[in-house]
Amino acid sequence: MDDKKAAILSEIPRLRRYARSLLRDRDSADDLVQDCLERALVRLDNWQTGESPRRWLFTIMHHLFIDQMRKVNRRGEAAMLPLEAGEAQSAPADQVESIASREIMDALQAISPDRRAALVMVAIEGFSYAEAANILGVPAGTLMSRIARGREELRGLLDDSSRRRSIRIIEK
């Protein structure tokens, strides 16, 4: 039993990263991770020993996120909160790489949650298309479509950002 708990605890950083990408708010993301861990520990017998708990935990988290979004939509409350200026980085961006990273994070937060979840699962978390489709509960074709559309949307947002950055204001 302790080995299972240790394996689950080792996944917390990945769960937090995924939750932050979904919710854009540190406190809400931490709440989602806590709910996920609580549900996982209550249903520990559902996880088969010998397998990595990663896919199982991400599936639990995604289902909790979907349930949360449904509740919010029923109540008519705002679901997503913007990242606060100092929340995503600890120091001001002094280098071009930091600015580019910030623009990528902002663009990722601007796309729809379904596309963002698909991209994060495959591109950042490293799940295969089949695993990500299983976790998100969609057919593989739908997942690939979301990834393709999400990448295209990101490209458009990032091209727009780089064009705005290259425009200089000249005062006379």
Structural summary, described in words:
This is RNA polymerase sigma factor. Belongs to the sigma-70 factor family. ECF subfamily. It is built from eight helices and no strands. 70% of the residues lie in helices and 0% in strands. The chain has helices at 2-9, 12-23, 26-42, 54-75, 96-110, 113-124, 129-136, 140-166. It is mostly helical and 172 residues long. The chain is globular, with a radius of gyration of 18 Å. Helix 5 (96-110) crosses helix 8 (140-166), helix 6 runs antiparallel to helix 7 (129-136) and helix 6 packs across helix 8 (140-166). The model has no long low-confidence stretch (mean pLDDT 80). The longest helix is centred in the last third of the chain and has 27 residues, at 140-166.
